[in-house]
Amino acid sequence: MALSRANTVYQEAFEALPSTLAILDQDGVILDVNAAWTSFGEANGLRMPNAAVGVNYLEICDASMLPEAQAVAQGIRSVMQGHRRVYTHVYPCHAPEERRWFQMRVTAFGEERRAVIIHEDISNCKQAEDHLRDQVEFTQGLLTNSPDCIQVLSLDGEVLWVNDRGCQMLAAAGTGRLTP
């Protein structure tokens, strides 16, 4: 494939990625962003010209009062300096009408130690985690507080867990006091 054609294919692939993506130089200056980055910025009030191309990403993080942003800058630097291969960070980025979470992934490339920063929307995963956690808490509450004897057994019949009421009932039946 000819070099100019290869560059066109790579640029088209870069623009087609659904995740927001920025390329930083070795000092942290944003060299390029994809269409998803630009669209996200426009939809969420980014007030920097040219979708922040030319802005120093690390300086923005360093200037933030949020300890999380400063930790992100440190993580990006650790990748760019070759101390780690990948840096990831999960963070909330809620909008007025929706709760959102993103995972930032940073990898370095090239001899100049440039970095690719990708922000992936993981809201569905976080919402599923929250739902699962709620379901576990609900189920534990039901099992623990049930007026019935509830036992969890291994496939071999070994008692793995007994709720408080079950311990009381087994003790009253003379089988000995079990602890949950």
Structural class: alpha+beta
Contiguous low-pLDDT stretches (5 residues minimum) are none
Order of helices and strands: HEEHHHEEEHEEH
Mean pLDDT: 88
> Approximately how much beta-strand content do the residues carry?
15-25%
Question: What is the number of E strands?
Answer: 7
* Radius of gyration, in angstroms, nearest whole number: 26 Å
Query: What is the spatial order of strands in the main beta sheet?
Result: 2-1-5-4-3
Largest sheet: 5 strands, antiparallel
What spatial form do the alpha-carbon principal axes imply? elongated
Helicity range: 40-55%
Distance between the termini: 67 Å
Q: How many DSSP helices?
A: 6
Give structural notes.
This protein is an alpha+beta fold and 180 residues long. Strands 2-1-5-4-3 form a 5-stranded antiparallel β-sheet, with helices on both faces. It has a two-stranded antiparallel ribbon with strand order 6-7. A hairpin with an 8-residue loop joins strand 3 and strand 4. Helix 3 packs antiparallel against helix 4. The chain is elongated, with a radius of gyration of 26 Å. 13% of the residues are buried.
Labels describing this entry:
single chain, 180 residues, alpha+beta, 5-stranded antiparallel sheet, two-stranded antiparallel ribbon, elongated
Summary?
With 180 residues, the protein is α+β, with helices and mostly antiparallel strands. It has helices spanning 3-16, 35-43, 57-63, 67-80, 123-145, 164-172, and strands at residues 20-24, 30-33, 86-92, 101-109, 114-121, 151-153, 159-162. The protein starts with a helix and ends in an 8-residue tail after the last helix.
